[in-house]
Amino acid sequence: MAAVAFVALVGAAGFRATPSVLLRPLHEEFGWSLGTISAAVSVNLLLYGLTAPFAAALMEKFGIRRVVMGALLLVAAGSGLTVLMSASWQLVLCWGVLVGLGTGSMALAFVATVTNRWFVRRRGLVTGVLTAGGAAGQLIFLPILARLTGDHGWRAAALTVAGAALLVVPLVWWRLRDRPADLGVTAYGAGPDTAATEDAALTAAAPGSAARGGVDPAGGAARAALGALRQAAGTRPFWLLAGGFAICGATTNGLIGTHFIPAAHDHGMPETTAAGLLALVGLFDIAGTIASGWLTDRVDSRLLLGAYYALRGLSLLVLPALFAATAHPSMVVFILFYGLDWVATVPPTVALCREYFGAAGAIVFGWVFAAHQVGAAVAATAAGLVRDRLGAYDAAWYSAGALALAASVLSLMLLAGRRTADRGGVGPAGAGLGLAYPAASASAPAP
Length: 447
What we know:
CATH class of the largest domain: Mainly Alpha
Number of strands: 0
Radius of gyration: 22 Å
């Protein structure tokens, strides 16, 4: 199950490498502005984030296998149909809507659902490996797509992404199952009665569940997601975390992930070389995420986030001076550092959501992740407009650096709530550390 889920995530991740490679070729062939093309990327990033909180409800109602197969087909259709487009709105429909919905249905909710249902032991390890599937997809596809685009044109690259997603569909249909009971086994590391016990507990706890009136479980899950958002939105920690994570998305997927290759090309660097550098980000991303998880168990997560964002901001401020026609050592050092810091923010952010919002922490993190994608969407379009109007990306890099420094301040502001709670008072987080929700609501968000 873990292997099939990993392959499915890699197959869907092929599109994550596509925009940065195809931005320039689409601009040259159709004459569309970079702002217009970036808008399609922004729609994709936005739907990717907004779909994720509801993906669990879809999997609960239709099953993991059906949802994942449908998601892969959407990715394949969205990427494949671009070869027939002739207008920019068709790019928004294909890249933005179809692929956005497809990849959003296979985001963090897919990883969480597989690990929670199929593993009792090694959940953390499997979660880390599956999360790395996106980075692995970027690492695999970026150099290939850049080479295909250079040798055979952008349509060959788009069809390759569509084919990769389609190739995984038969494997998902053959091997992916909804629950261990479907194969007559128990979850890894579980006793014979664990699955039934956990399913019963989840059903009883879900707002609007059958135990409370026989309401559709998908509707109960959706109400739980919206209920968690309503409660979390009334607390200071949520907005500090969401604000910081929105800037995280803006400075990673939205800016570097989308515009690094065309920006490097502006300075004479071949697109294949720039794609290779961006692929290295994916490689070091894996190491950085594992290291950050280790540090999260030992260092205050607020301090970690403050440090991560501050270092990211400083690196972005020096990036404009590093671009050149060749990949000189200073740029390689930047890529190494930025890769280590790329999603290092995820483990401490997850830990803080759990600390402040208790049992609802996973759902709240889904909404914080949605803010991440909103930030990415805004940055993708804004950077394209900056390039169109000013003829260079420098203002975008400097603005992103300043925003990352602001995110560091937002993260450190969470320390004030901790100090108040440690003294036994009621701080910005609410009634004590770990209780941003009222005590009666921490275990079950209001429907």
